[in-house]
Amino acid sequence: MQRQPSFIVRRKSEEGFIGKADLYKAKKSALDYLNNNEIVMKFGIISDSIWNYAELGMQEFRSSAILIKALEEEGFKLKRRGGYAHLFCCDMGSGLSR
């Protein structure tokens, strides 16, 4: 009996589960995006900033602000959650080039 891998990617798409070819395209797209030094610098600065803020749970106001700004610049639509300034969810939708 053949052993199953410890992880199986089963992301649901409109047509059903995505296959290896679609997963490869998504990975290639992400790697191509991250191959841009400006992108790496931008998100490196965001990551370092959040790390340096070291905000307590449910008090991540500065971290949330920097993430919200970055996501909006990338074309995400944000929705505030629960009346708190630091809670949000976002949706990229479809039709974007990346």
Q: What can you tell me about this protein's structure?
A:
- The chain is an alpha+beta fold and about 100 residues long.
- It has one domain (about 10-90).
- Helices cover about 45% and strands about 10% of the residues.
- The protein has three helices and four strands.
- The strands form two sheets. A two-stranded antiparallel sheet has the order 1-2.
- A hairpin with a 7-residue loop joins β3 (about 75-80) and β4.
- α2 (about 35-55) runs antiparallel to α3 (about 60-75).
- Residues about 5-10 have low confidence and may be disordered.
Q: Tags for this entry?
A:
alpha+beta, two-stranded antiparallel ribbon, single chain
Low-confidence stretches: 4-10
What is the arithmetic mean of pLDDT? Answer: 78
β content, as a range?
5-15%
Q: Helix/strand/pairing class, anyone? A: alpha+beta
**How many β strands by DSSP?**
4
Distance between the termini: 40 Å
SSE succession? EEHHHEE
Question: What is the overall silhouette?
Answer: globular
Residue share in helix: 40-55%
Number of helices: 3
Number of domains: 1
Q: Could you give the order of strands across the largest sheet?
A: 1-2
Largest sheet: number of strands, sense, barrel closure? 2 strands, antiparallel
Mind telling me the C-alpha Rg? Answer: 17 Å
Task: Please describe the topology of this protein.
Layout: E1 12-13, E2 16-17, H1 20-34, H2 37-53, H3 61-73, E3 77-80, E4 88-91
Antiparallel strand pairs: 1-2, 3-4
Helix pairs in contact: 2-3
